[in-house]
Design goal:
Elements: H1 2-12, H2 14-23, H3 36-46, H4 51-63, H5 72-77, H6 80-85, H7 90-105, H8 118-125, H9 133-142, H10 155-164, H11 173-180, H12 187-197
Amino acid sequence: MSRAAVRHLKRVDPTLRRVIERVGPCRLTLRTEGVHFDHLARAIVYQQLAGKAAAAIHGRLLGLYGDRPPTPAELLGTRAARLRRAGLSRQKLAYLKDLARHVHTGALPLGDLSDLPDEAIIEAVTQVNGIGVWTAQMFLMFRLGRPDVLPVLDFGIRNAVRLAYGLRKMPKAAQLERIAAPWRPYRTVACWYLWRSLDVRTP
């Protein structure tokens, strides 16, 4: 996907072409380890935390289950006090339990998600408390490898577009949609380049 995507993006958008040339080869990789439940549970743990703090809490959570991700049934069967000692806030504990409950009861059939269109997947996973549209979009992009996702509320994407396109203010969702329209059907790759562009800006 990436070679065709890069060719398309460079052809349709001169500004994005400059971003691509500055960043270099596309190294977008999917998070393929574990099952979908593990990925969503990890996303909940990591929400609104710095990377090192989130990794430490996630590591302690896995340690409760022999240094592996718990199954939904195991998570549901673990006492709240034990999970709290791993460093989980009451709110995140409630979110994880809700995710586990949805998956365990079949209300969220994660095994069937790959057959659904993007919007249906977002609708399905956002039924879980603590999983919003942004988390669902990251799941689409980096777990399922969907090629045409545009997280219009992502601060990094908005800031990268502001800088690359010389905008005076942060673009709102509608403006970002207009700018990104030529990128279809490879908006995921475009977003990867925009995120990376924030790391390679020249002084």
